[in-house]
Amino acid sequence: MAVFTLTIADADVPRVIAALCDNFGYAEVTAGNALAGVMTYITQVVANVEAAAARQAALATLPPITPIAVASSPPVAALTATPATGATPRLVTADASGSSDPQGLALSYSFDFGDGFVLANQTAATASHTYSTAGTYTLTLTATNTAGLSSTGSATITVTA
């Protein structure tokens, strides 16, 4: 137990003792209960100081916390398009369900069908579009994770007349 010295100027003794006793529920200040009030107060102060010192000592035994930087990786974009060839009008379904994120983060998908038709920021992993003009188009998928990292995949669509 720690040792404390309480020094009170003589003129302040009655006021200090009365305040201490009031805090501990004594109706009237006498020499006996004044001493009891002071002792109760001092005991609580000592207990609080010792508890704080014990907490500080326990914290001092813990190893230091070192922040770890976790590098986020972009998702892996995987795209299939079916059918990839055919005559106009050609309905093509883009499927990004094979896309994944190494951290397990949620993905959003943007599909650029290469003819000016774009579906951006979709939660669905599939999208369909009808090509009405013959030509060769690059269908591009952008898969983006919730950390804002993205990757792309593409497929070639050939539409004949």
Written account of the structure:
The protein has two helices and eight strands, in the order ααββββββββ. Strand 7 and strand 8 form a beta hairpin. The protein has helices spanning 13-23, 31-60; strands at 80-82, 85-87, 90-95, 107-112, 118-122, 126-131, 135-145, 150-160. It is rod-shaped, with a radius of gyration of 38 Å. It has two domains: 10-60, no CATH class; 80-160, Immunoglobulin-like (Sandwich).
The fourth-level CATH homologous superfamily of the largest domain is: Immunoglobulins
Uncertain stretches: none
Shape: rod-shaped
CATH architecture of the largest domain: Sandwich
- The proportion of residues forming helix, as a percent range, comes to 25-40%
Computed Rg? 38 Å
> SSE string, helix = H, strand = E?
HHEEEEEEEE
Question: Helix/strand-derived class?
Answer: alpha+beta
Strand arrangement across the biggest beta sheet? 2-8-7-4-5
Largest sheet: 5 strands, mixed
How many strands?
A: 8
Mean pLDDT, rounded to whole units? 84
CATH class of the largest domain: Mainly Beta
How many domains in all?
Answer: 2
CATH topology of the largest domain: Immunoglobulin-like
Distance between termini?
96 Å
Number of helices: 2
Range of strand content = 25-35%
